[in-house]
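Before relying on records like the one below, remember that each one covers exactly one chain. Contacts with other chains, cofactors or solvent are not represented anywhere in the record.
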Amino acid sequence: MTFEVVDHKGVTMQVGKTVFKPKNSSDWTPERIGQLSTQDIRQLRVNAERLGEAAIVAQCDGALAARKPAAKRRSAPSAHAKRPSRLVSRGKAFQARGVYLPGADSSWSGVRRSDGVVVISIWAGAVVSSEGGCSCLLWAPNADGSRPWSDTPGGKERLEHCQLALRQHGAEGLLVYGEPLDGHVPEDKARTVYGVDPELVVQLRVEQRGAEYWAVWGAKAKERPL
């Protein structure tokens, strides 16, 4: 298909194979240009630019820009992607802090015998960042069956350690990385547990909010190699 446009000087420009003669350059409306193929729009733009028809050039640019595929949105990094490259088991991480868990599978916190400090493992994916600080729910009552784990030996042990840390005005936290399982708190069941970051120890305090216990710490966690 050939298209011709006559500029203000009477010069004709063509695109394609079939003749189309608008009376003047103003006949090239955005709607008319939008009906052309991408190749024809590009050729029309070349001819319009050569003849000094800035309005047609701009309309061609707009039509071509509208046909560009939308850029793919990058997905936010998942918790899986953010996990450290070196992880160790929860038991080994606690041992490195001088704590030996009574129940390797059920215990998520313990007390160091040398100084009585409470050490709590925290599910990294449950940490909430807000206003320059971080927080994470440690324990909540099993209201209407919403948290059955709280009534298990492991949950009751966590409650005791939260109360002890509250009285001591501080505790140490270890970040556990993994993928949660829908319908369960990670301390009870998780789809996958990758391990604990051995290079990071969070210096936190425990706050009681109603019947719940929360871990709270500053904007920058204190790093201390195990």
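Residues 74 and 126 are 23 Å apart (CA to CA).
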